[in-house]
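4.2 Preliminary Data

To establish feasibility before requesting continued support, the project team ran the inverse folding procedure on a target of 200 residues. The structure was first converted into the token representation described in Section 3, and no sequence information of any kind was made available to the design step. The complete token record follows.
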């Protein structure tokens, strides 16, 4: 089963939002913005990064919740995200696994991208890389972190000899959709769902 994608350059969540799995230093409040003079660097993840990557991915997943499933509790979404990424550390050992982190000048995690190079397009059977998660701490939005992480994912895909890279975006996350289009991604397919009513 493929992990759900967190398109977490997404819309801001409420200022007071926290969840049971988050460390206290990671919240999903209104982006505060940072000066462009603030520096960050991108590097491959190491085992000690995994806890922070998981915390950020889980914290940010509600930016990607579907408007079509309002009955699903936030806690269920958070728990599902944690389960989906439970084996994340294994990616570090896979040649086709790309997990990259962005850190600030103090070495603190500010974002990550999870990219796998073993995806096959279901229609063309073309091999491609797939971005399963892009998450950036909200206070770093607008400072080029997401763009730099995506550039690193694309560089990783090229290193594997791949010509294509793809990802999924929840329709409700218009901010993420605009971001991906701005950096060159096009809409190839649309996933549609319908709630089935009980038959009397």
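Position-by-position output of the design step:
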């Amino acid at each position: 089963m493929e992990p759900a994608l967190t398109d977490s350059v997404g819309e801001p969540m409420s200022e007071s939002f926290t969840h049971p799995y988050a460390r206290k230093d990671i919240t999903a409040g209104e982006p505060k913005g940072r000066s462009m003079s603030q520096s960050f660097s991108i590097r491959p993840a190491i085992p000690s990064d995994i806890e922070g990557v998981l915390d950020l991915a889980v914290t940010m997943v509600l930016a990607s919740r579907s408007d079509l499933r309002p009955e699903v509790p936030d806690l269920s979404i958070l728990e599902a995200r944690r389960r989906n990424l439970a084996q994340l550390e294994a990616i570090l050992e896979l040649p086709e696994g790309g997990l990259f982190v962005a850190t600030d000048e103090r070495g603190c995690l500010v974002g990550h991208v999870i990219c796998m190079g073993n995806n096959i397009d279901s229609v063309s059977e073309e091999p491609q890389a797939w971005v399963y998660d892009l998450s950036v701490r909200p206070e770093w939005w607008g400072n080029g972190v997401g763009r730099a992480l995506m550039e690193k994912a694309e560089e990783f895909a090229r290193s594997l000899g791949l010509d294509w890279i793809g990802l999924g975006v929840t329709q409700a996350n218009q901010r993420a959709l605009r971001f991906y289009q701005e950096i060159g991604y096009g809409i190839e397919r649309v996933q549609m769902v319908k709630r089935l009513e009980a038959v009397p």
